[in-house]
Hints:
The chain has helices spanning about 1-15, 20-45, 50-70, 75-85. It is an all-alpha fold. The longest helix has 26 residues, at about 20-45.
Amino acid sequence: MEFTHCYSNLLKANGVPHIGVRQYQYTFNIMVLEVRISEQNKIHQSITDSDSKALLYRRSYDLYNKLNTLTKGKEPKDIMKAIIESI
């Protein structure tokens, strides 16, 4: 949840950024994917059934791929910098 922490630190330091609707959508899509991946990883650790673990692994992998596609592999600080600079 690197991007979520980076965004949280930005909010604490500077308050809510005045960005456009598309930037907010992009930001929150990334955070939602990070939270979903984190939740699935926590569930994965508590499950003992191998079939369920395999299913959760596939779902987590799909979410990770969506996140990577959305961020294009960029670091959270670089993404936040680009969003802020687009204002």
